[in-house]
Amino acid sequence: MDDIDVQGTVWPCPAPSMPVSSYQGYAGAGELLASHGYVVVSISANGINALDVEEVGGDQYIARGELVLQHLDLLRKANAGRVESLRALHGRLDMQRIGLMGHSRGGEGVVRAALLNAERGSPFGIRSLMPLASVNERSSIPGVPMASVLPYCDGDVSTLEGQAFVDDGAHAFGDSALRTTVLMMGANHNFYNSVWSEEGHGGDDVELASDFADDATCGVGRSTRLTQAEQEHLGAGYMAAWFRLTLGREGRFLPLFDGTSASLRGLPRADVRSVPVLPSEDRLDVLTAALRLGDWRAGGGVQARWCAEAAVDIDDCPRREEEAIDVRQPHWSSGLGESGTMLRVDWAGAGTLSVMLPRQSRRTGRMERLSMRVMTGLSAPGGMRLTLHDRWGRRASVQLDAQAHATLGALPEVNGIGTSLLQAVQVPLARFRGIDLRHLRRLDIDREEPGTLFLTDVAFTRSSVGMAQHASHWPGIAVESQPPMDSRGPSERQDVRVTATLSGRQSYPVTVNVRLGTDSRAVTVPPGNLCAGTSLQFAPSVDPDVDESMAFIASGNSSGGFTSNRQIPVGPAGVRNDGRTAVVCREE
């Protein structure tokens, strides 16, 4: 990159300063993979870090994605024998089996790389993604298996916003890709990278976060914390296992990611919980909150209702309403779309939630488990009884209690703050004895004591990583705005026209969620159409301390198509910045 001075920041580093070699901090994972025949390349993004390209009119995550693709372009040339300095790689690379891992802002960067690759028509076979302790700008990618790693004691991205990668993509595309959250209890943000772990280069980020440092759960030196060596070893093991599973098809690593949360010999003993949404072809859906699919009846002292991220009644969503501000809520972070929707079920006393099984989900012959993602209350998590009823009136029950199933207990508080995070509950179908699993009719969820459960993704499942598909099989979505928005936004209230244009007509609706400041809307392109539009209103903040960078049009999670979030401003004359005439679409 060129030398640019941005608010006193210079790149390259002027002497005698030396750049931080962050890219060398993943040597453990790289060596593990290389020892099994993988070519591992770690790249430096110091130029982007130093300049923060948002300050010079760009998007740092697009820049990170482009940086990844530029290195893949270089490796493709090396594989063809056209790079003399990389002659050792000639003919050694499979450019159609590529996995990407990104740490922190790099997590969003590798997802953008996959989206930009799709915009190009998928010249590279990006078949696996691992955002690690990642920020999240609500990008969703179709067709690519993804494991989003969440360190529970993250002192940097403490909101655990990487959860949204799984929520946003799980039901948006109907694809055959495993998406899973890997929650590492006791892990911080920095210790996955040996360079960041050093004093002066970051160290223990929990120690730097004043509200975490003395915490009983995540505080420095607590027995519940992983040491630097343990976390680096654990992280390297999970990185290697994920790519050997998704690129090498080594199925023995699947139990680390499919919700059974098995451990792997040779890795440090740790509480690591995987919370998956399995591929569409490997599950029979019973209740899917993100799609508002589910037929239930509430009996006794039970009430149930949908609880959506974008709902007006968002205050009804937190599980501890009177102290909602004191709960980390990764599933309800920005008010964009329906991906964080759950079924909230409140028991005032003993009662039953009965879920009727859809016709296509009554024959479970190929399936292995009854699975669901569940979040329990803080004050009285308790347990529950699951009962399946068959066509002949017979029933079989399995009792689950919080002591035997850690996922039914409340997650530990961090500095007095609870965490609302869905956990995996998986019950082998073999435990439901004496009924006909080929002719099921109903699932009952019973509790005896008062309490609250949040439910979604109730399904009969079998473990699978699925099959990666080129994201370019789905339509691309270009988001345009008129007038264009800069980083500060207008000085007075202004209406902004936003248009979503598809790369081709589809037989189904395609939706993208867009946001401007505090105003957000879903833009849906109807079947057979190329585009649709809506209007957003930007109202400048009266608070001088509020960051106006939200004046950018932000396109978030989408369904039925993908967007890289590369913005295309449209000027007053209706001409895009690439010289093409903008498409005029109807008002939503």
SSE layout and pairing:
Elements: H1 27-34, H2 46-51, H3 60-79, E1 98-103, H4 105-119, E2 126-132, E3 146-151, H5 163-170, E4 179-184, H6 205-208, H7 228-246, E5 272-277, E6 283-287, E7 295-307, E8 327-328, E9 342-356, E10 369-376, E11 384-390, E12 395-400, E13 418-419, E14 423-428, E15 440-447, E16 451-461, E17 477-482, E18 494-502, E19 510-516, E20 519-525, E21 531-538, E22 554-559, E23 568-569
Parallel strand pairs: 1-2, 2-3, 3-4, 8-13, 17-23
Antiparallel strand pairs: 4-5, 6-16, 7-9, 9-15, 9-16, 10-14, 10-16, 11-12, 11-15, 17-18, 18-21, 19-20, 19-22
Describe the protein.
It contains 7 helices and 23 strands. The radius of gyration is 24 Å and the shape is globular. With about 600 residues, the protein is an alpha+beta fold. It folds into 3 domains: about 20-280, Rossmann fold (3-Layer(aba) Sandwich), CATH 3.40.50; about 285-460, Jelly Rolls (Sandwich); about 475-570, Immunoglobulin-like (Sandwich), CATH 2.60.40. About 15% of the residues lie in helices and about 25% in strands. Helix 1 (about 25-35) packs parallel to helix 7 (about 230-245) and helix 3 crosses helix 4. The chain has helices at about 25-35, 45-50, 60-80, 105-120, 165-170, 205-210, 230-245; strands at about 100-105, 125-130, 145-150, 180-185, 270-275, 285, 295-305, 325-330, 340-355, 370-375, 385-390, 395-400, 420, 425-430, 440-445, 450-460, 475-480, 495-500, 510-515, 520-525, 530-540, 555-560, 570. Strands 6, 7, 9, 10, 11, 12, 14, 15 and 16 form a 9-stranded antiparallel β-sheet that branches. It has a 5-stranded mixed β-sheet with strand order 1-2-3-4-5, sandwiched between helices.
